[in-house]
């Protein structure tokens, strides 16, 4: 059975290419609020499949710039929507992947940085926008954005690190807020953010071991990974859990072959990957399935960076903080 | 997309969907452009509020529309009475029942409470009752638990006293109802250190004795679920336990726990022919704690690790790494 499972690269490329041609479907319009994220997910998956040229670079960059919100300086998911930290990171990731950050004018760049920084609160956390939702995800998105722009400063970084460390829990996981239950996605955002600013050393060896233990217990007998104890496996945790394990140098604490088999079982023969076998596919799970396979070294994929979820060839050009 | 079964689309089904979608798309896009247009014109009327309601019912993840809705409410605020704010809470409750995992709805509900014309402690206490009910329906909803902690903080700010003791009762009831409620075990690890730090435990020794009894009872009830085992891993290594009990009693209770885990493991072996992996994992921890306390014990860690490498091959490399640490 395992021997028969292969990564359907051409089908996935075709699936991603066709995503923007589904305008006859109601769901296409219902997901406008995720469009810019979707472009990042699709583009990154294509890069890992060595098919970056599938998207038209100029069209994509035009779309990104249409999502720029003059009034706030951030990026929205779709033209005329509102800027948010989540979508601002997607915009910056796409521009960086195309080596096109210079399409931002100096005043746009300045306003964008101001938008990110202005959402930091006194305890070091970040709100997603002015309406005050606070979440560890936004700490990651803010630090990742500023890192790609190579404009991190100790004034932003130090309080953010303190906040992240306060999200560490009894079980070696991280919550979305101090006191909140551990979840694999927040292990990634916490460890990823610490890695971005070169502060993984703030965790003790003992903590690293506990983190590794909790993460490797996410693998369930069918091979997939879950996000929390007692929950079903889901392909997106192939990314959240695996990248976290990679960041603490314990990637091999789970079984690669079983996970590979699980991810491949979630493929639709027509292209795309779903959360669980025989479910509806989407571009989010397609990326995270492929990124997981890349991290484990399967399928001759382009190497992915566990910190940024972008091709290593792109991220190695990012200047590392602290800057000299 | 999470948890949606893959559909096999025949040509006929696709044709039908296309016809149905055409109308829905037209309505949705009209409504969207109308709402965004009135937003751009700074139109803050009850009529525009209704448009956001319709749009958010169709798509509760449309954050720009949630933002517009709040702008409208801010502008209409002086004209909005208690009844209105209660209806706003009803609206988000109905949304949460349909979409309990949408962050934007939880966030808007919190904003509504902050802006409620009667933002008294009563409103927040009513909310605490609401979220208790919601957690009965979905005991692991992390949004619900997070929201609950925010509500409790707010009540504490109003009244000046915390409800940690009542919360511990709530958490215990939840665990007693379902021993695999990891969210409740998590909350237990948040509350107990705080109760100790705030000196809210009258007899600290007795509390710790009871906690040892509680976890022992839990593993005899269900030794397969990882919730209680992660809790034990944290509890026995916690400085506060040792300092409350003092060394001798702590060691006795720890060794009693170790004996009980061995009994469970032996029972499993006799019953199913297999040892219990979680028993072995925690026995390793207990041996390590004792070694670090300077006790001379007969170590079985290497045997346990060998057994785990066989029986829990997914995590083989962790056990190999623990073995290397030993030597």
From TrEMBL, chain A:
Domain Prenyltransferase alpha-alpha toroid per the UniProt entry, residue ranges: 7-310
EC number: 2.5.1.60
Cofactor(s) demanded: Zn(2+)
GO MF terms held by the record: metal ion binding; Rab geranylgeranyltransferase activity
Pfam families linked to this entry: Prenyltrans
Keyword RNA-binding: no
Keywords: Metal-binding, Prenyltransferase, Repeat, Transferase, Zinc
Task performed by this protein: Catalyzes the transfer of a geranylgeranyl moiety from geranylgeranyl diphosphate to both cysteines of proteins with the C-terminal sequence -XXCC, -XCXC and -CCXX.
Quaternary data: Heterodimer of an alpha and a beta subunit.
PANTHER family: GERANYLGERANYL TRANSFERASE TYPE BETA SUBUNIT, GERANYLGERANYL TRANSFERASE TYPE-2 SUBUNIT BETA
Name of the protein: Geranylgeranyl transferase type-2 subunit beta
Organism: Torulaspora delbrueckii (Yeast)
UniProtKB/TrEMBL annotation, chain B:
Major enzyme class: transferase
General function of this protein: Catalyzes the transfer of a geranyl-geranyl moiety from geranyl-geranyl pyrophosphate to cysteines occuring in specific C-terminal amino acid sequences.
Protein name: Geranylgeranyl transferase type-2 subunit alpha
Keyword Translocase: no
GO cellular component: peroxisome; Rab-protein geranylgeranyltransferase complex
Pfam assignment, any one: PPTA
PROSITE patterns (UniProt xref): PFTA
Gene Ontology molecular function terms on file: Rab geranylgeranyltransferase activity
Catalytic reaction annotation: geranylgeranyl diphosphate + L-cysteinyl-[protein] = S-geranylgeranyl-L-cysteinyl-[protein] + diphosphate
Keywords for this protein: Prenyltransferase, Repeat, Transferase
Family the UniProt entry places it in: Belongs to the protein prenyltransferase subunit alpha family.
């Amino acid at each position: 059975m395992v021997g028969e499972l292969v990564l359907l690269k051409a089908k996935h490329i075709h699936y991603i290419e066709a995503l923007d041609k589904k305008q006859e479907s109601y769901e296409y319009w219902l997901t406008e609020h995720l469009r810019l994220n979707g472009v990042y997910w699709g583009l990154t998956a294509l890069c890992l499949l060595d098919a970056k040229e599938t998207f038209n670079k100029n069209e994509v960059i035009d779309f990104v710039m249409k999502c720029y919100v003059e009034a706030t300086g951030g990026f929205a998911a779709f033209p005329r929507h509102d800027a948010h930290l989540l979508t601002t990171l997607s915009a910056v990731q796409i521009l960086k992947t195309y080596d096109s950050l210079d399409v931002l004018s100096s005043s746009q760049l300045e306003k964008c940085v101001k938008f990110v920084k202005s959402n930091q609160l006194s305890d070091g956390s970040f709100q997603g926008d002015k309406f005050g939702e606070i979440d560890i995800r936004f700490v990651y998105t803010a630090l990742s954005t500023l890192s790609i722009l190579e404009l991190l400063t100790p004034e932003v970084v130090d309080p953010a690190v303190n906040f992240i460390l306060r999200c560490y829990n009894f079980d070696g996981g991280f919550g979305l807020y101090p006191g909140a239950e551990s979840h694999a996605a927040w292990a990634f955002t916490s460890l990823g953010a610490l890695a971005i600013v070169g502060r993984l050393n703030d965790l003790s060896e003992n903590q690293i071991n506990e983190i590794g233990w909790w993460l490797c217990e996410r693998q369930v007998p069918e091979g997939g990974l879950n996000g929390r104890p007692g929950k079903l496996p889901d392909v997106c945790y192939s990314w959240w859990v695996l990248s976290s394990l990679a960041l603490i140098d314990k990637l091999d604490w789970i079984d690669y072959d079983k996970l590979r088999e699980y991810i491949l079982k979630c493929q639709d023969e027509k292209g795309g990957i779903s959360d669980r076998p025989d479910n509806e596919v989407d571009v989010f799970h397609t990326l995270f399935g492929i990124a997981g396979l890349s991290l484990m070294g399967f399928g001759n994929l382009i190497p992915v960076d566990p910190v940024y979820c972008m091709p290593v060839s792109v991220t190695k050009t990012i200047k590392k903080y602290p800057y000299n | 997309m999470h948890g949606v079964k893959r559909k096999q689309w025949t040509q006929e089904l696709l044709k039908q969907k296309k016809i149905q979608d055409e109308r829905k798309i037209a309505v949705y896009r009209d409504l969207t452009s109308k709402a965004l247009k009135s937003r751009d014109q700074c139109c803050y009327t009850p009529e525009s509020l209704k448009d956001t309601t319709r749009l958010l019912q169709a798509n509760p993840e449309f954050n720009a529309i949630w933002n517009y809705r709040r702008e409208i409410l801010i502008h209409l605020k002086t004209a909005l009475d208690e009844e209105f704010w209660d209806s706003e809470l009803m609206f988000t409750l109905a949304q949460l029942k349909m979409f309990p995992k949408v962050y934007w709805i939880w966030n808007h509900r919190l904003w509504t409470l902050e802006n409620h014309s009667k933002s008294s402690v009563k409103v927040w206490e009513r909310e605490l009752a609401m979220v208790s009910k919601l957690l009965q329906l979905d005991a692991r909803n992390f949004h619900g638990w997070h929201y609950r902690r925010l509500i409790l903080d707010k009540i504490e700010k109003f009244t000046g006293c915390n409800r940690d003791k009542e919360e511990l009762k709530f958490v215990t009831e939840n665990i007693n109802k379902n021993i695999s409620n990891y969210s409740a075990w998590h909350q237990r690890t948040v509350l107990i250190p705080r109760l100790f730090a705030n000196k809210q435990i009258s007899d600290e020794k007795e509390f710790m004795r009871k906690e040892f009894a509680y976890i022992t009872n839990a593993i005899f009830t269900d030794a397969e679920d990882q919730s209680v085992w992660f809790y034990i891993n944290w509890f026995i290594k916690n400085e506060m336990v040792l300092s409350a009990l003092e060394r001798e009693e702590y060691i006795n209770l720890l060794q009693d726990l170790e004996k009980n885990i061995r009994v469970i493991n032996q029972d499993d072996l006799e019953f199913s022919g297999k040892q219990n992996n979680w028993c072995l994992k925690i026995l390793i921890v207990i041996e390590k704690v004792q070694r670090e306390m300077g006790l001379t014990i007969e170590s079985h860690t290497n045997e346990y690790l060998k057994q785990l490498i066989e029986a829990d091959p997914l995590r083989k490399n962790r056990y190999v790494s623990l073995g290397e640490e030993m030597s």
